[in-house]
Write a structure and sequence with these properties.
By secondary structure, the chain is α+β, with helices and mostly antiparallel strands. The protein has 16 helices and 19 strands. Helix 2 packs across helix 5 and helix 14 packs antiparallel against helix 15. The termini are far apart. 47% of the residues are buried.
């Protein structure tokens, strides 16, 4: 198979690389092929942020900046983009970028191994907020640095540095120059590229044709999971089918009764759309991994993956989401639609045929006075995988439960809908007695396993505790969630 040439912009120049294998990661290319040792390899699974780099894409005449993990990002996925690493921020005369200078002034580097990743996350924060005249609050800094871990526990000065950047002499990226360069290397895709080892179809039609023609190609959409297979399981794929360039699937479409989120929409943008309709989901959204993972990962990829501990599925199940699968057969395009919970047939297995792709996730808009809570229980508050995830949506009228949907994760081989508990609640008076009966039903509805994150008994107990918390919150009790508390003296 032919290996396409990889091109991106770095330091204002076009970098062209040939013969890059389809499963080679961006971190490997930077460190081993381009000798950029500033970008560090830490966990090699997208958890620690030491490998963070910043990508730039043309977006409505401007540059959209995204901090991403280079260790689980396939190199070919950055074709046609601009790239910044920690070595690229210092001016030729040695002047530091505000992201670097602020780290120095605030004494925010200790052993220094994590520092390049923090600097790049700060650089993205600078471009996305400071350059637009926005104030970086402590809360914003904590959210956007949640994907970077400091093993020397130097978080306070690093957060200080995030807020100090705006006080330093400004530095601007010449976006018009970068945009001009991006136009020069805009991927010119001749389709079909049936003999290519890395397929990046630009349209939905081309994607469906490629899937029908190459059912054995490994689909990637952000690669935050497949990157682990490459790094930790040492899997290699002869051919990769990347859906992230499909124009139609990068859109979020608004309709009166629902929003339709394309499978290639990043988790960052997908959560923003969900939070726009339901602001109470903000904290839950920011606890899905860290920002670099959300900037690369896609909603469609997370849903298609079907991990029993994936956080988006319990949420989408509770919201009543449907998925749309599409295919091309005998030259004709077809589709089928189903509730999201019906997509899964077993542990990390689904009902999609070999020639089908997950194209859209349709999420109903809120109806009436919706009572919605999303709970995530994990060992770390930030940047961690759930032991239990429970999302509850109720509509109460005249004191009775008129509608209910409950999604659960971490309690079965697949993300599940708690149908028995829903039946226990539906039509009943919203009282403590009703809730206590529902707690007993919920605890008996699933038989979770014990693993490194939690025991089966713990998970069963927590399920009921979360429903009890939901009841207490519905009665107006506040400050019973960890996210409700702020450290004394912390800036808002």
């Amino acid at each position: 198979m032919n290996t396409p040439t990889l091109q991106f912009i770095r330091r204002g120049e076009i970098v062209s690389l040939r013969n890059v294998p389809p499963t080679r990661t961006l971190l490997q290319v930077l460190r081993e092929d381009l000798n950029c040792s500033g970008t560090k390899e830490g966990c090699n699974e997208g958890d620690c942020g030491a490998c963070t780099v910043v990508l730039g894409e043309a977006d409505a005449g401007r540059i959209k900046y995204s901090a991403v993990n280079a260790c689980i990002r396939l190199a070919h996925s950055v074709n046609g983009m601009a790239l910044w690493t920690t070595e690229d921020l210092v001016k030729q005369d040695g002047t530091l970028h505000p992201a670097q200078e602020a780290m120095v002034q605030c004494h925010a580097s200790q052993c220094g191994f994590c520092t390049p990743g923090f600097v790049m996350s700060l650089f993205a924060m600078y471009q996305n907020h400071v350059c637009h005249g926005e104030i970086i609050t402590r809360e914003l800094a904590q959210e956007e640095l949640s994907g970077n871990l400091c093993r020397c526990t130097g978080y306070r000065p690093i957060l200080d540095a995030a807020q100090r950047m705006a006080q330093l002499p400004p530095v601007r990226v010449d976006e018009s120059f970068v945009l001009q360069k991006l136009k020069q290397i805009a991927p010119k895709i001749r389709w079909p590229e049936s003999n290519s080892s890395y397929l990046s179809p630009p349209t939905l039609s081309a994607l469906l044709t490629a899937r029908a023609t190459h059912p054995d190609a490994q689909i990637v959409a952000g690669c935050t999971d497949v990157g682990l297979w490459v790094n930790k399981m040492h899997l290699q794929f002869d051919q990769v089918l990347d859906v992230t360039r499909v124009r139609e699937l990068k859109r979020i479409e608004d309709y009166p009764q629902h929003i339709a989120i394309g499978a290639a929409v990043t988790l960052t943008d997908a959560f923003a759309a969900l939070v726009k309709d339901r602001p109470q989901l903000h904290t839950f959204a920011t606890r899905f991994a860290g920002l670099p993972v959300r900037n690369s990962g896609t909603l469609g990829g997370n849903v298609a993956n079907g991990s029993p501990i994936g956080d988006t599925m319990p949420l989408l199940i509770a919201l009543g989401a449907n998925v749309v699968l599409m295919f091309e057969r005998n030259g004709k395009v077809g589709h089928r639609e189903m509730p999201l919970e019906q997509l899964y047939s077993g542990y990390r297995k689904n009902v999609m045929a070999a020639d089908e792709v997950l194209a859209w996730i349709k999420v109903p808009r809120p109806v009436g006075q919706e009572l919605l809570r999303a709970y995530k229980i994990s060992k770390r508050f930030d940047d961690d995988i759930s032991a239990v995830c429970l999302v509850i949506k109720l509509r109460i009228e005249a004191g009775r439960v008129q509608a209910v949907s409950i999604g659960a994760g971490g309690v079965a081989a697949t993300p599940m809908r708690a149908t028995k508990t829903e039946t226990t609640l539906l039509g009943q008076a919203w009282t403590l007695d009703t809730v206590q009966q529902a707690i007993r039903t919920l605890r008996g509805e699933f038989s979770p396993i014990s693993d490194m994150r939690a025991s089966s008994a713990y998970r069963v107990q927590v399920l009921g505790n979360l429903l009890q918390r939901f009841w207490l919150e519905s009665q107006g009790l506040q400050n019973i969630n960890l996210e409700s508390f702020a450290l004394e003296g912390e800036d808002a």
